[in-house]
Amino acid sequence: MTATIELDLTGIAHGGEALGRHAGKVIFVPYAIPGERVRVEIVEEKERWARARLLEVLTPGPDRIEPPCPHFGPDRCSGCQWQHIAYPRQAELKREIVADQLQRLGRLTDPPVADVVAFADPTAPEDAPQFFDYGYRSHVQFALTPEGLPGFRQEGSYDILPIDHCPLLHERLDALHGSMDIAWPDMTGLAMRAGFNTDDAIIMLQNTTGEEPELELDVPAACALVAPTGAKPLIGDPWIEEEIGGRRFRISAGSFFHDNVTGAAALVELVVAYAAAGKADVVLDLYCGVGLFSVALSEVAGEVIGVESSEAACEDFAENAGEVANISLHEGSVESVLEALQGQEELHVDLVVMEPPRTGAGERAMRELAALGPVRIIYVAGDPAGLARDSVYLSAAGYRLIEAQPVDMAPQTFHVETVALWAKEA
Q: How far apart are CA 352 and CA 372, in angstroms?
């Protein structure tokens, strides 16, 4: 018989679930909010913790709101976790998550975590500002139903829920998605990217064979085929251009770039401010992608050296750097390039900027990085757990966390970006 209990929720977990304690165990409850009293059903139980299904909110918290999306909720779309929480509280919870991860996984006592950077809606009247918490995504990755309809995976399942409208998508991207009629059995996925500050858009059809489809496209967008061998243009160029902080960037179909363009601009401002670089400084930009940080830092630093393993991103980097004389690029894994750079006695790195994958850079990369001995390290983290794990290596190498600045790139979800400034102890 499944256990049903009443529970007071006291905290938030890294995966976005509220948590409470019962009979000596931590109980994780999705779609709830810390401060609420709930009735739940235990659905998974381990020795020290359990996961529960929310049955009833007995005492709602003051931040509980009605979700605007009909696809949100248990056993529905897995894309959002927090549409039931008023946005200001979401920002507070994200700060708590970053601080908790740095304390528990990063082994840092009282880490200096700033309040979350959130964004105002640029279309809202000045006398009635609103948060820019919907319509912010300029890139989307769809899965496909067996009938070929685009959608998102259902919570806790491999099943696909067809989506007619997603309120997180930029209006141009949502309109593009809604206007498409696709029938191609070989297609395994569908992605789209639209320029937030430009008129560009691209549709990325994905399959594993590289075989081209018959295509009729009556929408204002380029189209590319993305297969394991790379991206192939079908209509127009296989990239878009985007403008960030007055700088124009080419972003190819096979390159990573942030889904939230407004947030990306904020990251650049934070990185440049934390860098405080001068013309005598040499900056190493690890996992540099298409050059988002390198191009901005080249305007203030003496030399910027990018490191990137993706061939598509390296090609974009070269295009975006253009004829800038003080930027160079090493193509290869961060670990191998760092090892090679240590053999260059004439190279002195003053500052490192790094934006590794969500899982973190890992022990070898952090060890090779510490051996270069930069004075400051700016770590841009897509997941606070990855940052926390790598924080252990930075602390062991003699670096101190000066400030961790969370940036909310993904409202309505538990995801949070963090820019962390580390300095070498004297």
A: 10
pLDDT surpasses 80 at 1: no
Alpha-carbon distance of 294 to 290, in angstroms, equals 9
**What tokens appear for 148 in the block?**
């070929």
CB of 408 closer than 8 Å to CB of 168: no
Alpha carbon of 218 to those of 170, 174, 179, 351: distances in Å? 20, 16, 9, 48
Residues 6 or more apart from 363 whose CB is under 8 A from it?
393
Summarised one tens digit per residue, pLDDT across range 163-186 is 888 999 998 888 887 777 666 777
Distance in angstroms (rounded) separating the CA atoms of residues 25 and 29: 13
Tokens of 177: 């998605």
Whole-number Å distance between alpha carbons of 22 and 51: 11
Q: 3-state DSSP helix/strand/coil percent for the chain, to nearest 5?
A: 20, 35, 45
With a CB cutoff of 8 Å and minimum separation 6, the contacts of 87 are: 118, 131, 133, 411
- How many angstroms separate the CA atoms of 420 and 251, rounded? 25
The full DSSP string for 209-238 is S-PPPP----SSSEEEEEETTEEEEEES-S
**Residues 11 and 18: beta-carbon distance below 8 Å:** yes
**Residue 189: exposure state from Cβ atoms within 10 A (0-12, 13-18, ≥19):** middle
How far from 27 is each of 51, 64, 242, 381, 420, CA to CA, in Å? 6, 20, 44, 28, 31
List the 351-354 sheet strands across, edge first: 327-331, 303-308, 282-286, 351-354, 376-381, 417-424, 399-407
- Residue-wise pLDDT for 314-344, tens only, equals 999 999 999 999 999 999 999 999 999 887 7
* Contact present, 219 and 179 (Cβ < 8 Å): yes
Q: How far apart are CA 299 and CA 424, in angstroms?
A: 24
